[in-house]
Design goal:
heterotrimer; A mainly alpha (about 270); B mainly alpha (about 325); C alpha/beta (about 550); A: about 270 residues; 10 helices; C: alpha/beta; Rossmann fold; six-stranded mixed β-sheet; 21 helices; globular
């Protein structure tokens, strides 16, 4: 199977980001939180990407920031997926009042922009990693619910699912053996999109000062810390901004490719 | 009653119901979360007696339902209560800022809507060829950027590399229209970038969807010119999906303005909201949250109503 | 001999398809086909789906759908080769010299514009006639085609008229600009059989009265025999046989054509009644949330080793009856007894034996099998589920079943997508047999298949019935199939059983009105059938 160049680039970059995130402790040349140089030093052989607003090494903070950003985004999208996909499948196969209650609840949450609802909730809850992951995961689960319910509803009307029902199969077999294998590729592509959304979301929250709190840092927070540098013509704020963009675009390229490979429900076994 | 009117009335009624439910979520849902407003104001070191006094003073000792209806009644009569932090009247504080936010959003909408439709048409017309690939490629990258990242790229480009704008956008009462327009140029450019990408991609998809219909083939087989095909057959059917795409994407603006206002220090509702989330000033957050949600829901209702009205099957029932 | 209007010589058509995630695939759709149509004559193009008949039809307008390219040969229209003509010239002839009637008029009309605007659009765009004249012509065509209120019919929107009326309006649209040639692409296929005959008659009359030439594309040889002067039989994009209608119908030379003409080679002798295995008594049912009975007081039964055919048009309730019997749609009243026990109304209330002994085979084998399961899993699951078979034992039984459906070795690890249409349906039969059922409900099991393949499936079903004494409840709209396999017949109309009894009784006059209409509407494979039926009906209505 030939892979388009764009997908290959996306896959390699995504892999690189993951590698950096996992081995941040070994890769970062300086500690995350100590001022090792002057304020806003330009890139040099000592500080490859320069230093930040209080003289910390930007590359090191970028590497540690990758770990936090990717961890929070991954954890919240995994939560969103487990919650959204399972409830979506249950709603689609059970139908009736279960479906009605779940669907109306999701409609209600989705009627408010996620950022607004997150801001309202975060004005009450303590700002720590667990709360952020839970809030983002639950809000995002509504989108996953919509998609997986729609995909599963399309599959449940297929004759092969009816045949399984008529055979007397239970809910477990129908969800995991009949529906899931056929819903997998749209869901995998959606996972990519949800992950990007989570990266953008946590970055935005941190940028607004309502996400990751010091001493931890993430890319959105780094943009916030260094935003004044821009006025003085320093590129410090652009580095984390570019990291966010690069990660989002490379995951997007992979997701696009998976989505285009998604075969129709009727034909072929494709992926 | 004409079925279209009936459907529209139903949709609006449903929207109002949704709005009510959303207000309940924002008030009661937040109340249900662990956290204590009185504690938030007085801090961890407050004595139990001081806490109890403050709760009584603020009416926090009453049941949540009672306070909800009191709050709801206040919203409907324009009384949004007082801010916890400085005791300021919230409605008054919001008034001017809401105007500024709407001005920003309106400017961004006025530029992005025609541009998005134009680019969407071009991309659909040259589907799969280079103009389409170019437009789609660029918009894919802008979709991948959060608003504030796009904002800093634009700031860096237009204030440092090509210094033609001021990185801070301030508007004051008494500024002239053109002055104001110049002041908001940068945030508007950023908002347009962000909204344009979504809007254009969905417009393109909507047009392509119509162009694949069997009646377009019929029109081509009638020997009509491409312009006649688009104008007489594709356009009347594409209006509804395009309009609803446009309106739905205006809803992106609602979120976009919050971030962009913070980036540019633009004194309006979004920044006001973020400030008070940081200060944990719940009454302000709830009031502003309801306003944003209300605008968002109203836009969605508008999109649905337009889709209903534009549907020939509903306009001309059997 | 006069010069033909349309002369296609050695036409070759190719296409490139882009299946998602796979390299582009190059296919030859039509290979070396030559055919011609004279002024005022009708040519029938006949073949299965994928035979290339629509592709050839559209080539008469030098039009290719999607990635279709006309790569070789000549298409002479009024003496000019249009195959490589420039777009401007093509635009001039499309709609003016050649017009097109699509299979689904419902999709081919623009939902946002009134019928009249669309019908006269071509005449105005090509300057064939002024608006007033075009409207007058449209109204007279509406009248000619038997549309109701021809003077105001054009003021309606497409969704405001019925499917049969839309198909006639589309014919009016094609005839309005006075073209030389009209392409009819399966114009009656989407219609019910009793509607089809009226539309067919209207089209035939309109062709005659306007003197236009036509290409009539269909998969139904009996239909095309009524309207065509010549017939071209196609298979896999190649010519099978080409000749006059009389020649093709009465003296076909090729085996394939002979098979198409004979339709069903099965000669089934009706078996006599025995003690029933399934009895449906007074069953009434409606869908949840509606106030309308889709089944009204239905009573039928079927004995072991016998076949009960349920016949009716779409909306007659025949598939709903199957849903009621399987428990997917619990009846609101009535009783269903099966193998001597009362069946629970609801699927959830049935025992494992109830479920096992009552199996179902579907119309679309494609969607009746999970595309992500192998043939082995599909057939093996009932063995495992009902009989607890595992390992070698299960594998042996799967092979036994594959042998029974005449598929032999090497299929166990294949996926449904790797099978042909007939093989897929055979696997579905094996899955049903695996449960050792007493009754199999067959829902239009042959209607999606090519005639030859369908014949094979029917023969297999009959053989299996003789061996295993399984009863069939056979749902179909195709009377030829019914004649081939049924022992008993129930004719359904609007949720009721209109006529019920042994095959001979049901198919022997005197008929009730509906059965008469239904039976007489099924096209027969002989010339002049349409005229006979119409004359007969005219006489009867005059008699009343």
């Amino acid at each position: 199977m030939k892979m388009p160049l764009s997908a290959l680039i996306g896959l390699v970059l995504t892999g690189l980001f993951l590698f950096v995130a996992i081995f941040a402790q070994f890769l970062a040349p300086y500690p995350i939180d100590s001022a090792v140089g002057g304020v806003w030093e330009s890139p040099s052989s000592t500080y490859l990407l320069g230093t930040d607003t209080i003289g910390r090494d930007i590359l090191s903070r970028l590497i540690y920031g990758a770990q936090v950003t990717i961890f929070v985004a991954a954890a919240s999208s995994i939560l969103a997926f487990s919650l959204g996909a399972i409830l979506g499948f249950v709603a689609a196969t059970k139908g009736g009042w279960v479906d009605q209650v779940l669907s109306r609840l999701v409609d209600l949450v989705m009627a408010i922009p996620s950022l607004i609802i997150a801001l309202v909730v975060l004005s009450v809850l303590p700002l720590n990693l667990t709360v952020l992951i839970l809030v983002m995961g639950v809000l995002d689960a509504t989108r996953v619910f919509r998609l997986s319910r729609a995909v599963a509803v399309d599959i449940t009307v297929m004759d092969y699912v009816e045949a399984a029902r008529l055979r007397g199969e239970g809910g477990g077999w129908i969800i995991f053996r009949e529906i899931l294998p056929n819903a997998l590729s749209p869901l995998v592509a959606e996972f990519g999109l949800r992950f990007i959304f989570a990266v953008l979301f946590i970055s935005t929250l941190s940028f607004l000062g309502l996400g990751i709190q010091p001493p931890l840092t993430d890319w959105g927070g780094m943009v916030k810390e260094n935003k004044d540098a821009l006025v003085y013509g320093k590129s410090a704020a652009l580095m984390p901004a570019m990291a966010i963009a690069a990660l989002a675009i490379s995951v997007n390229l992979v997701a696009d490719w998976i989505l285009s490979r998604t075969t129709s429900l009727k034909g072929g076994r494709g992926a | 009653m004409h079925p279209v009117l009936k459907l529209v009335a139903q949709r609006i009624a449903l929207g109002l119901l949704l709005l009510l439910a959303v207000s309940a979520v924002i008030f009661l849902g937040v109340e249900a979360l662990p956290g204590d407003t009185a504690q938030a104001i007085l801090g961890q070191s407050a004595t139990p007696q001081a806490l109890a006094n403050l709760r009584e003073k603020m009416g926090l000792d009453q049941p949540a339902m009672v306070r909800y209806f009191h709050w709801l009644g206040g919203i409907l009569t324009g009384d949004l209560g007082k801010a916890l932090t400085n005791g300021q009247d919230i409605a008054q504080a919001i008034g001017q800022r809401l105007g500024n936010t709407l001005f920003l959003a309106a400017c961004a909408g006025a530029i992005s809507v025609p541009l998005a439709i134009l680019l969407g048409l071009v991309a659909a017309r040259y589907n799969g060829r280079w103009p389409d690939k170019l437009i789609s490629g660029i918009t894919l990258s802008t979709i991948s950027l959060p608003e504030f990242v796009a904002a800093y790229f634009v700031i860096y480009l237009l204030t440092q590399l090509i210094p033609i704008f001021n990185p801070v956008a301030m508007v004051f009462p008494g500024m002239g229209f053109w002055e104001k327009l110049h002041a908001v140029a940068l945030p508007v450019i950023v908002l347009v970038l962000v909204v344009l990408a979504h809007m254009m991609r969905m417009t393109r998809a909507a047009i392509l969807n119509v162009m694949q219909s069997a009646y377009i083939e019929t029109a081509e087989l009638k020997g009509l010119s491409p312009m006649q095909v688009i104008w007489r057959h594709a356009f009347p059917n594409a209006i509804a999906p395009i309009v609803s795409v446009v309106v739905l994407n205006l809803a992106y603006l609602v979120v976009g303005v919050v971030v962009v206002e913070v980036v540019f220090g633009y004194n309006a509702l979004g920044q006001f909201l973020v400030d008070h989330v940081a200060k944990r000033d719940l009454p302000v957050v709830q009031a502003v949250g309801v306003i944003f949600a209300g605008v968002y829901i109203s836009l969605n209702i508008l999109a649905d109503v337009i889709a209903i009205v534009a549907n020939p099957r509903l306009r001309h029932p059997r | 001999m006069p010069e033909p209007l349309l002369d296609i010589r050695n036409l070759r058509i190719e296409a490139t398809s882009y299946p998602p995630g796979e390299p582009p695939r190059h296919v030859v759709l039509v290979d070396d086909v030559s055919v011609s149509v004279e002024k005022g004559k009708v040519l029938g193009l006949i073949g299965e789906s994928g035979a290339g008949k629509s592709t050839i039809g559209l080539s008469a307008m030098a039009y290719g759908r999607g990635g279709v390219r006309l790569t070789g040969g000549q298409i002479l229209l009024n003496g000019r080769d249009i195959r490589e003509a420039p777009v401007g010239a093509l635009r001039n002839l499309r709609g003016k010299e050649v017009t097109y009637v699509a299979q689904s008029a419902a999709a081919a009309f623009n939902p946002a514009r009134k019928l009249m605007e669309q019908v006269i659009e071509t005449s105005l765009a090509h300057g064939v006639m002024p608006k007033a004249e075009a409207e007058a012509r449209a109204r007279s065509l509406f009248a000619q085609l038997g549309l109701p209120n021809p003077d105001t019919f054009g003021d309606r929107y497409p969704h405001q008229v019925s499917g049969g009326q839309l198909q006639r309006a589309m014919t009016a649209m094609a005839l309005c600009p006075k073209p030389d040639l009209v392409i009819f692409d399966e114009p009656t296929t989407a219609l019910d059989v009793t509607t089809q005959i009226d539309v067919l008659a209207a089209i035939k009359r309109a062709i005659h009265e306007t003197g236009v030439a036509a290409l009539y594309i269909t998969h139904d040889l009996a239909v095309v025999a009524q309207v065509a002067d010549d017939i071209l039989v196609l298979r896999h994009g190649k010519k099978v046989e080409y000749g006059s209608t009389d020649h093709i119908i009465n003296r076909p030379e090729q085996t394939y054509t002979q098979a198409l003409v004979s339709v069903r080679s099965i000669d089934h002798v009706e078996k006599t009644a025995a003690k029933p295995v399934l009895t449906v008594s007074n069953v009434t049912a409606r869908y949840r949330g509606t106030h309308f009975d889709v089944l009204k007081n239905v009573s039928v039964d079927v004995a072991p080793g016998q076949t009960l055919a349920i016949v009716g048009e779409s909306g007659s309730g025949k598939s709903t009856l199957a849903r009621a019997i399987t428990g997917l749609l619990p009846p609101t009243s009535g009783r269903i007894t099966f193998a001597g026990r009362d069946l629970s109304r609801d699927l959830a209330g049935r025992t494992k034996d109830d479920l096992r002994e009552l199996q179902m085979i579907y119309q679309m084998a494609d969607v009746a099998m999970n595309p992500r399961q192998t043939v082995g899993t599909i057939i093996g699951r009932p063995l495992e589920f009902y009989f607890g078979l595992k390992g070698e034992e299960k594998r042996k039984r799967i092979q036994e079943l594959l042998d029974q459906i005449e598929m032999g070795k090497g299929y166990e690890n294949r996926y449904p997508a790797e099978l042909s249409g007939g093989q897929k349906q055979r696997v579905c039969i094996a899955r049903a047999l695996a449960a050792k059922p007493k009754l199999i409900i067959c829902d239009e099991v042959t209607s999606a298949l090519d005639p030859l393949v369908a014949d094979g499936i029917l023969k297999l079903l009959l053989e299996l019935q003789a061996q295993q004494q399984v009863a069939y409840l056979f749902i179909t709209h195709d009377l030829a199939t019914v004649k081939a396999i049924a022992d008993k017949i129930a004719v359904m109309y609007k949720g009721e059983v209109r006529r019920y009894g042994s095959k001979t009784d049901v198919l022997t006059p005197p008929f009730d009105d509906y059965t008469d209409l239904l039976l007489s509407s099924v096209p027969e494979m002989r010339l002049g059938w349409l005229e006979e039926v119409l004359a007969h009906r005219k006489m009867e209505s005059a008699g009343n």
